[in-house]
Write a structure and sequence with these properties.
The chain is α+β, with helices and mostly antiparallel strands. Helices cover 27% and strands 33% of the residues.
Amino acid sequence: MGEMANQPNAKAPEAGRKVSRRGLTRDALVASACGLFVVFMVGASYAAVPFYNWFCRATGFNGTTQVATAAPTGAPLERKISVRFDSNVGPGLPWKFEPEQTEIEVKLGEVVTVFYTVTNQAARTTSAQAAYNVTPLTVGAYFQKINCFCFTEQTMGPGEKREMPVVFYVDPALADDSENDTLKTITLSYTFYPMRDPPKPLASSEPDKRKGNL
């Protein structure tokens, strides 16, 4: 009888071990799930940046201008819009940056070329790239740039001065947008930001390619 009374107690440690194993397995699954979630969120955050940039370019959201491959096929409309030009330089960039004209008047669908002047005021080679947008933000989808210095990184030698063209037109489709019936002025704004690691300057024996660097 004494041996039979002790038998249930003998199984208790084994049951405890099974519960412990189940608990460890459950904790491991929870930890793995949390780890996978963190990896997914980090990956999603990196993917969101190029997706957001693509979305802005495709829709003109937040004043992002469009990139056109050619001039419009039809004749310009008679309706005119004033386009103002704004220029800014980010902290730490020793450049002087300004438009040659602060404002012009253009017809819808008219292809126009304007110039900005940039001077590297440092005694060293510096590099930068421009960010841009237009205001009002709702007209980004109609502002079409055919060529622009903002598409590529710019490198300037010590004391170098350069003219940088922008070729653009305002899409005639703007005339069909009732929300912009009273629109009279668009502002195109650029800000140059310094690049951390500027490339080495070209050798003095190489030809000057600045005119093709848009």
